[in-house]
Give the backbone structure.
Amino acid sequence: MMTLYSGDLSPYAARVRMQIYAKGITDIALERPATFGTPQYRQDNPIGRIPVLDIDGDRMPESQVIAEYLEEVYPTPSMLGTTARETAHIRTIARIGDIYLMNNLFMLAGQAYATEKDQSIIGLLGGQVTRNVRALDRMIGPKAGEDGFACCGRLTMADCVLVPALFMIENTLPATGVPDPLAANPNVTAYWAAIKTNEHAARTLVELHRGLEERRAMMASGDFAKMMVAFRAAQAEADAIA
Ligand SMILES: N[C@@H](CCC(=O)N[C@@H](CS)C(=O)NCC(=O)O)C(=O)O
């Protein structure tokens, strides 16, 4: 039995969920780990993050690693290429989404909620996001804006990463004050409008929006601030043991 430890608003978990939906996998349970953010979770999962794929108690972290594992275990429908070169293109776009966009967006997210914003962090990470949306604009397929697929004319692992990354650009980046990086990039803008209509992307986006609403409610009630204090304490405890 496999369980994906996940959370609605986690863009990294969302990329794996979208892949699971697109592949029609029905025997992986999706669960928010009850201990997430506690010292116990960090003890059980050294990196301390989600997603984690639990395979009968054997825990596998890192969304990209999980995505590649799922491709091997559930090869059809394939979300990789039909040639080595196509697969390399898909993986390049997926890396842009993961490393160059999502990682910087995730690190920036704290600035969206901060009462006093640190402009040096926003400038550094926001600049990376802006630059790499421009790179993406040149690297997605020439028909991406028409067919709604990042490459190869069908849904691939690249789309699974780009959907949560572009969700963050649209929904969490504005609160940091970084100018909209989509405005100057017509291919990505057209692709984003088109991929939103894909059923698996739409399902994933509903979950991401639900997570965002929940986060906003927690912020309004003060529960989010309390959760962050607990998260930091758990991290400090884990660091002290290390
Ligand atoms: N490189 C990791 C990043 C995962 C990640 O940062 N997950 C976030 C949620 S989106 C998390 O668990 N954050 C908790 C923390 O930083 O303590 C992956 O690809 O899975």
Q: What stands out?
A: The chain has a mean pLDDT of 95. Residues 10-12, 48-51, 62-64, 106, 231 surround glutathione (CB under 6 Å).
